[in-house]
Structure formats: structure tokens, C-alpha cells
Amino acid sequence: MTSRNAAATRQRILEHAKRQFARHGYTAITVKGVADAAGVSPNLITRYFGGKDGLFLAATRVEIPVADSFDGDRATLGPRLAASIVRRWFGEPGEDPLLVLQRASGERPEAAEALAAFLDSNSLEPLHRYLRESGLDDAEAHRRAAAIDAFVLGVSTRRRVLRAELGDPAELEAWLGETIQRLADG
Question: Is the dihedral of CA 167, 23, 150, 74 positive or negative?
Fold first, then answer.
């Protein structure tokens, strides 16, 4: 097998694993089930990922360009963040590793740790820095960033993990934008 085919096979396995973990959580997924969906031998999952835990960790690597939402004045932070959030929530759920981490965080301690680390480094801290650089003192910037982070995580959990219908995406975006803005403004 050439390295190009190996890379493509590894990617195909990851795509199927992301979808399955997002839809069914960690416990319900088997290495054989992912292998069958990807059209490969379960031995390849062991070779590439070391087994189910390694596959899970690879499938839940999260990268979100949150910094893009921080370009601009604090007076319009809420609508910018809300637009980014709603785009992600209404995208392809089976492809979103953040959703996988959210759903698995109750089942797997490493998922909860990975989600907390991701939120701290990619949401809370950049938002804290942004608010501090917008003129707030450090403690106030941290309080407001923590409030926004908790609010968004709560709504995200309600929508994506508990699968509650939160209405029309445009209306949801407007409501999120207004609420985030109020939190940013204090």
C-alpha cells in the first residue's frame, strides 16, 4: 500500500468515525462498525490509531478559527460571534469534532478534559484577551468572557447534545447576538 493510499484510507476511517461518534457517542461505537463503514479491516484501525481510544482522540481533534470573530469593535462582537456559532451548529453535525466531544464528555473523562482544554484555549482565553484589549480591566474582561463562554456552551448543549429545537437559524442568530452583546457590554 502506498503512503498516498494509506493517508486516504486513514482519512476515510476518520470521517466515518467522526460521523458515528457524533451520532451515537463513544460507548455505542465499535472498531468493527467503523471499519465496516469505511470498508477496511479492523486491523487497520489498530495499526493507524492503536484501537478505539486512539481513534476517538483522533476523531475529536478540534480546530475552530474563533479569532476571526474578534476582528472588529467590541460594540459588534455579539453579532459576529453569533454568526460564527450558528454556521457551525447548522453545518454537518457528523463532521463536527466539537459536537463529538460535547456528547462524549459525560461518558469519557478524556473527552471532558479535551473539551475543557479546547474551550479554555480556543474560546475563554482569546475572548478574555479580546475584551481586555478592548479597554476592560483584566478581572472584568475575565468575568465577561466566562459569562459568554458559559452561555454559549449551555445553549450549544441544549441544541446539539439534548437535541432541543431552538427555532429558525436566523432568529437564533439574532437572539444569540443580542445576548452575547449584552454580556460583552456588562
Answer: negative
